[in-house]
Amino acid sequence: MEYFPNVNLRRIHEVEGFHQKLAIILNDEFVKERESLESENKELEEVVNGLELQMSEMGVSTQLSPEFLDQYSRISRKIHELETQNEAYTKLNELNEKKRRAKQALDQSIEGILSELEVAINAEMKELNNRLFDEKRKAPLLRLKAFNSYSFFTPDDDGTGTNFKGLVLFDLAALRLSRLPAIAHDSLIFKNIEDESVDGIMQLYSESEKQIFIAFDRTNSYESTTAKIAYDNTRLELGKNGQELYGEDWKLEENDNASKL
After folding, report:
1. What are phi and psi of 81, to 5 degrees?
2. Which of 95, 143, 188, 206 would give a disulfide with 151, using CB separation of 3.0 to 4.6 Å?
3. Single pTM value for the model
């Protein structure tokens, strides 16, 4: 009160009272623990005395030499080391077995998933391929050999046009079967595919409920339905004489080999 006139003495008394109660509780715990340890110590002493009595009756000295104790200590440590090594070896074998079973289960799971994907994609590509032509033609096939290995081909036909057509059908199948929101195809793809297949592909594009972006030219080379689909869905049309992407042809030189770019 002399140094801190505004101090809350009641609060200080409450805290001090709590400390005193806590000290009483801890002291009781210490007493109980000491009594418990003294009881255990007494039991151990009785066991030791009993063992010493048995040794005396058998004529064995209860006074062990330092050499004996050292030898006993070395043997005890060696036994402990060997037991630890055995436990580690056993544990290693258990872990290796668990790893083997886990890998086997993973391989089986991957194999099952790949098989389902392969069947679904091939069925979708076959259905799409049948819609391209009046007669039935062989559809592209996907073979998923492992999670990091595959083959993609059209049976008995490895032509460039067939390969590009297979690529388009695969993309369309993936678009329809997955959560993929959109696909994009460059005009280079269509230039390598026969006109009849391009007409069918454009029809498949038009029926898609998801977005498909393509670069397409030479519309007058295909059926009128194909040209109509292209023009009805055109968002950007490029050409010469001001219809370039940025309004002028950057390839042209103005003077002294200076580029417009």
Report:
1. -65, -45
2. 143
3. 0.59
